[in-house]
Amino acid sequence: MVDAHSALKSGPAKAAAATPSSRGATREQVDSAVRSRLLTGRFIPGKSVTIRGLAADLGVSPMPVREVLQRLAAENALEVKPNGRVQVPDMTPGRFEEVLKARLLLETELAELALPHLRSADAADLKAIDDDIDARLTNGDAEAYMRLNHAFHFRIYRASGSQVLLPLIDSLWLQFAPFMRTVYGRVGTASLEDRHKEAIRAIERADAPALRAAIAADIADGMGLLGKEVLAEP
Amino acid sequence: MVDAHSALKSGPAKAAAATPSSRGATREQVDSAVRSRLLTGRFIPGKSVTIRGLAADLGVSPMPVREVLQRLAAENALEVKPNGRVQVPDMTPGRFEEVLKARLLLETELAELALPHLRSADAADLKAIDDDIDARLTNGDAEAYMRLNHAFHFRIYRASGSQVLLPLIDSLWLQFAPFMRTVYGRVGTASLEDRHKEAIRAIERADAPALRAAIAADIADGMGLLGKEVLAEP
DNA sequence: CGTGCCATTTTGTGATCACAAACTGATTTT
DNA sequence: AAAATCAGTTTGTGATCACAAAATGGCACG
Fold it and tell me: Quick one: which of B10, B67, B197, B228 could link to A70 by a disulfide (CB 3.0–4.6 Å)?
């Protein structure tokens, strides 16, 4: 009994010594790790995520994992089933249509709000990301594509300095990303075409209507067409 | 040491025996309690909420409270400061404008989506809620007004069966409600006018453009005008 | 009288524990 | 042989603990 406590002092496994730094550091590490996995589709929809399993996977105690899972469930990125089990929600036609509608409403709006804050340096960054995307598409690296596509969009949105719309869009991406990963698994990435170059041109010209149109088209083509196709199949 | 455990068995305070029912029941109880307090403005913006304090207040252990606070922080209803302290975020002009814009975009859209699902029975319910609101306004009961106004709007939105837009709007209400409570505290509730009757009429006629207009006007007048006025003062 | 400093208390965080519900799979029963 | 049952394991939940960072309040010093 007593030595159990002293043993606890000597070595609480592996996570404690790594980064004894600031407040809530472990939780943030777990949070960004899980978010990254969701955004690149490394969690399979319908497969349940266990607290202990994920904790062991990340080398931390179950505690911060529990809190992170609750956070992501609150953003509708994960689903807590009535028995307490946590899993990535399955995509349904109704949910898909709603996500599409919300993305078109919010992302076009936020892109326009970001436009005045975007400098030519940002346009150069976006060009670099887009070139990287083109390279990855031919390689068929779906995870890298998803990570870069996310980086492209949020490089624009983040420039707005938004504190409200941006988190809402964040939630939407977490919801559709795991499903899109399964889509790319079926149709491949070679056939993907985006409107990123049109968006960059609109940013360089500070042309708000053109930027809205480019973002809307990027969403409708990249997500809408592919997704509806796959959802119609089974 | 040993009897500490048996004492734990005999009486872990007050919460355990009450509802030994289903999975995660305590967490849901805490969650809805805190949500209710936020939506009726019973938390003061800027005042920090302590885990142990809230736990003692609700008669539960700190555990479920921690998870709930994390959930609400993920919805931007609460803010975790760099020192780990949790508080209701202060409203800023920028945030306010964004919430207003997002509400206009999302709530008009969801109201229209809900319209085909709304039967005359729902219209009757809405009428009853609205009558209740009118009664409370003259009494100056701000908390009751906020609760009923929330009930009115979400009676409409929930009819849509939405799984995506509705949670987004939920997050928005949690963000502006505490601030609006302070607004009502300054200007009173007697001067409040809403467009609920116009909305009910539009629902009875199944007139989508009229419903959009009524919801938009209700948001712009009820929240926009008052809020901008108060934010301009200090 | 104001200001910096230190002891005390409060608070969040991560870890572990005990328990009940749920899942798994092998065995028995019809 | 198919279905039901039962033991064993896994898993989420709530509780408690130990520790460090932070806030608080009182005290000494300028």
Answer: B67
Distance to chain A for B139, nearest Cα, Å: 33
| Whether the Cβ atoms of residue A164 and residue B172 lie closer than 8 Å to each other | yes
The backbone torsions φ and ψ at residue B79, rounded to the nearest 5 degrees and listed phi first, read -130, 125
Would you tell me how many other CB atoms lie within 10 Å of the CB of residue A33? 16
Extract the runs of DSSP E, i.e. beta strands, from A44-167.
Answer: 48-49, 79-80, 86-87
pLDDT tens over chain B, length 234 residues: 333 333 333 333 333 333 346 788 999 999 999 999 999 999 999 999 999 999 999 999 999 999 999 999 999 999 999 999 999 999 999 999 999 999 999 999 999 999 999 999 999 999 999 999 999 998 889 999 999 999 999 999 999 999 999 999 999 999 999 999 999 999 888 888 899 999 999 999 999 999 999 999 999 999 999 888 888 766
What is the token pair recorded at A82? 């009535």
CB proximity A46–strand C (7 Å threshold): no
Bridge partners (DSSP) listed for residue A87:
A48, A79
CA-nearest residue to A113 within chain B is B98
- Residue B211 CA to residue B213 CA, distance in Å, equals 5
A180 CB neighbour count, 10 Å cutoff: 22
pTM (2 d.p.) = 0.91
How many Cβ atoms are within 10 Å of B7's Cβ, its own excluded? 10
CA dist., res. A144 & res. A36, Å (int): 11
DSSP code, position A220: I
Chain C nucleotides covered by protein, CB below 7 Å? 10-19, 21-23
Query: What are residue A165's DSSP bridge partners?
Result: none
For residue A52, say whether its CB is under 7 Å from any atom of strand D: yes
The DSSP element (H or E) to which B48 belongs, if any, is strand B48-49
In whole angstroms, what is the distance from residue A177 CA to residue A39 CA? 5
Please tell me which of the candidates B22, B84, B102 has its beta carbon nearest to residue A24. Answer: B84
